[in-house]
Amino acid sequence: MSEESRLRRWLIIALMGAFILPLGATLIMASYKLVTTAGPMIWGSWSNHSSRLQREEDRVARIEQDARERSFQIVCPDYFDASILDRWTGYRNLSWCEDYRDRMPETD
Length: 108
Prior knowledge:
With about 110 residues, this protein is mostly helical. The model has no long low-confidence stretch (mean pLDDT about 90).
């Protein structure tokens, strides 16, 4: 190896030691700081948002169930009188009536 190539090699090593390694260490420390400070805030925000969405879904489900309990005797006879094809197409949104089939009053 020539003297010039050795000098270049040591110059590259010195530059890496002076600039690249401290830059890498700084990036690692900044990443750690970001993860330990912003991470919990982001997780808490996401967790609160998810909980709020779940509570809202539960509230909507209770309201729908209550409305179905109060209206199945009025709404479901049309569903049960419809043909299977009509149930699959026009009355598709009333498929919940199947849960109330055994509670429907008998008609002659």
